[in-house]
Specification:
TIM Barrel, seven-stranded antiparallel beta sheet, seven-stranded parallel beta sheet
């Protein structure tokens, strides 16, 4: 089988649609939006450039791909179903380049839900069937866009609690760490979601995501960083009776910088009590490590109820290592230590922990979060209610408005062709004939990528949103 055969990167039923459209159909115009009712009220658009470079750019149609698709569809659905004539027309008349135009908002831009973020139409009347044939592939932009949105919203949340508790913000870029590679559905999905996270944060353990800016977004800079850290296979190496000996071994062999230690292999309360008790080997080892300027120890409980366990750990660490107050009256550790919660998190649980910390008079700067499945796999297309719908068709030289209006009115689709304009600081979708500068720009046309953006530009657009209080 040919990898990335564009003729097969669709849903089965779409293979049958070329002979279902009305006679005289010349163009299909469709759009992508996040419907009203999404979890967050804005969506950060991200990932289209990757999809174009990976699957759409250049001469992607070949005779070999057409033959393979024809044979497969004949067995999969039936003989004479596959649109061989349509694909061979693209090969012969366009050299295998897709005759479509994709217009989209700049990646990294937060767009209010209920607005068109992308449109697509065919540029050759013979290929009217192509725009919606490509829907399943293009709609996959929902995934990196949703992760980018989630990370940005968490950053806004962290930024808010840092502000209200009088915390320093020098660690904001690292308050949410990506732990998601092992829970991702594939390496490709880990790259997409991991790079989407890097639009708002700099902490990641998903190394594969670090390749995305250089390979697809014209940026060779490094945007993700991590630290030395233990896991249970390390901490339990000598069993319960040898836990302290193994911890001492870890600290003795640690390099300068940040050292993150998992503390719940057996009893996190006992661990933190010994860590903070003057005169114990563990306490002296930790203080010795912290003696080097720039060194930091982060304690990671990895089980239990998130809110109560977090507050318990903060109190135990304060008893052992001391704390002082910010100018707004919230506690901060005296030494360069911190707490990391990375088990079973989502946006709501992070919010609950930060709220509980504030209620217990703890400054937000004492904690960082790690999110794996909640970042990579707990989102789906309905998180931001992403939908791709046809809104206009050209037949016999006349444009016809197309829409759906089911009993579930939340799924009513837009009508006609659009512009996306800024009005009073917000985006609004208006008729293509309306006044106002269109923020949807032609990104791809007839096989060519026309806007080749850089990751740093996209990141800055996202940060401009997530840093706003």
């Amino acid at each position: 089988m040919i990898e990335n055969n564009i003729c097969l990167l669709t849903d089965s039923y779409k293979v049958t649609h070329h002979y279902f459209y009305p006679k005289g159909t010349e163009k299909i115009y469709s759009y992508l939006e996040s419907r009203v009712g999404a979890e967050f009220n804005k969506t950060i658009f991200y990932g289209l450039q990757y999809i174009i470079k990976k699957y759409l750019e250049g001469a992607v149609v070949t005779q070999e791909k057409i033959d393979e698709a024809d044979s497969l569809i004949a067995s999969h659905i039936g003989e004479g179903i596959f649109n061989r004539q349509g694909w061979e027309y693209i090969l012969d008349e366009h050299g295998g380049r897709l005759p479509i135009e994709i217009r989209a908002v700049a990646e990294g831009t937060p767009v209010e839900v209920g607005n068109a973020m992308m449109t697509i139409e065919n540029t050759d009347n013979e290929s009217y069937w192509l725009p919606n044939y490509l829907e399943p592939l293009l709609l996959q932009v929902w995934y990196p866009s949703t992760v980018a949105t989630l990370s940005a919203e968490v950053r806004k949340l962290c930024n808010f609690y840092l502000e209200v508790t009088g915390s320093e913000k020098d660690n904001l870029d690292f308050m949410l760490h990506d732990f998601g590679y092992r829970g991702a559905t594939s390496t490709e999905s880990a790259m997409l979601s991991g790079s989407a996270h890097l639009l708002s944060f700099s902490g990641t353990d998903t190394i594969a995501a670090l390749t995305m800016p250089g390979n697809y977004y014209n940026d060779s800079n490094l945007y993700g960083f991590s630290v030395q850290a233990t896991e249970h296979s390390v901490m339990t190496s000598l069993g319960p009776d040898g836990e302290i000996s193994q911890i001492l071994n870890v600290i003795d062999n640690a390099k300068d910088g940040v050292l993150s230690m998992v503390i719940d292999s057996y009893n996190y309360k006992s661990f933190l009590t010994q860590a903070g008790s003057p005169g114990t080997e563990l306490n002296e080892a930790i203080l010795g490590f912290l003696d080097t300027e720039g060194n930091k120890v982060v304690f990671r409980p990895d089980s239990g109820e998130p809110v109560s366990t977090t507050i318990d750990c903060l109190n135990l660490l304060s008893e052992g290592f001391g704390s002082h107050l910010t100018d707004k009256g919230y506690k901060v550790f005296d030494l360069n230590i911190g707490l990391l919660w990375g088990d079973g998190l989502n946006y709501q649980k992070i919010r609950d922990i930060l709220y509980a910390m504030k209620s217990a008079r703890w400054a937000a700067q004492n904690i960082i979060f790690g999110m794996g499945g909640g970042l990579h796999t707990a989102v789906n297309r309905d998180t931001q209610r992403n939908a791709f719908k046809c809104s206009a068709q050209l037949r016999d030289g006349v444009w016809h408005d197309i829409f759906k209006n089911p009993l579930d009115s939340s799924k009513k689709s837009k009508t006609g062709r659009f512009k996306l304009i800024r009005k009073n600081g917000s985006f609004t979708t208006v008729s293509i004939d309306s006044e106002g500068e269109d923020c949807l720009q032609t990104v791809f046309e007839d096989g060519k990528l026309l806007i080749d953006d850089s990751f740093i530009n996209i990141k800055q657009r996202a940060l401009n949103y997530s840093n706003f209080l």
